[in-house]
Amino acid sequence: MTRTKTPLILVINPGSTSTKVAVFKALELLFETTVEHEHAQLETLGRVVAQTALRKSAVLSELKARNIRLDEDVDVVIGRGGFLRPVTGGVYAVNPRMLRDLRRSTYGEHASNLGAVIANALAGGGRKPCYVANPVVLDELEPAARLTGHPAIPRRSVFHALNQKAVAGKVAARLGRPYSRCNFVVAHVGGGVSVGAHRRGRVVDVNNALDGDGPFSPERTGSLPLLPFCRLVTERKMSRREVVTMVSRTGGMLAHLGTNDCRRIEMLVRSGSRRHTLVFQAFVHQVAKAIGAGAAVLDGNVDAVVLTGGVMKCRWIRSRLIRKVRFIAPVHVLAGNLEMEALAAAAFDVWRARTRARTY
Predict the structure, then answer these.
(1) Of 111, 273, 308, 334, which is most buried by a Cβ count within 10 Å?
(2) For residue 2, is it within any domain?
(3) In this structure, are 278 and 301 located in the same domain?
């Protein structure tokens, strides 16, 4: 049934050390803010699920500061989708099975797992509609894209699905065609880098942006030569936790240059630092190579290359990357991300019955 009321939509997007909060009236943004959490405080809590109360309290404080009453004013709550079992794209109603998998970290532990958990708590455990949309485990891979060089290690689909789908939809609208009739290579270039081949509305191949696959990023190693990597782990007698930290938190630009701040690195590049310039050049090289691979997956039939993510605000990287890949197809840049807007739009589509929420 289509509702006639214009809904107030609360959007929650937990990151590793921050929680983004926004409220939309239908698709009109009323406010958006990012609450930063002390890294040391999060570390003392241990597992991610133990951060629920802290982050929930932060969301409530932001609502109170803007005189938005959760019980009386908010109609719908939607959170960022976390590490669930592999699912196809769409909006999913939060249910007990989803909450169980996220609280237990059944499929992986990540701050995004708290999106649905906090949303459910603020929605009164079912009293208000509560959803997630296009979670990071969205899986539309072609069968051939799943295989690696060893059957014990198949490729998983873990990427910036929410933002990739959102920017792809925007570019399709620019082209005057439905997303389901377009072929794009979309590169999300941020704290992690994921490059997806979008064929007629499905992401048929994409690197796993979390597990050490694809280009390096400001703080992730990306793909590494396996035998030297194994030797390093053995020689340093690294624990599993230390390996995960190196690959996903302290690699990439941070390992090379001691900082993951692209704005600072860009300043040093412009001042003539050869070391910083080389690392930036290598970064552009790897992202461009991944975009070219995506074009190959699409048999060269590419309507547009789409560049998105926070690093695309860096003019030095953006301009050089465009030069390298513009031979493939016209390049569209949507710097930053559209995650909050995309979540609100997903909730609003369900509210006005343009789409139906799926069951997890």
Answers:
(1) 308
(2) no
(3) yes
Contact 302, 329 (CB under 8 A): yes
Q: What is the pLDDT of residues 248-296, one digit of tens each?
A: 889 999 999 999 999 999 999 999 999 999 999 999 999 999 999 999 9
Residue 226 shares a structural domain with residue 126 = no
The model scores a pTM over 0.85: yes
pLDDT, tens digit, 9 for 90 and up, residues 301-331: 999 999 999 999 999 999 999 999 999 999 9
Q: Are 171 and 39 in a shared domain?
A: no
Residues 319, 173, single domain; the answer is yes
- Total structural domains in the chain? 2
Residue owning tokens 């951060």: 51
Cα(221)–Cα(212) distance, integer angstroms? 6
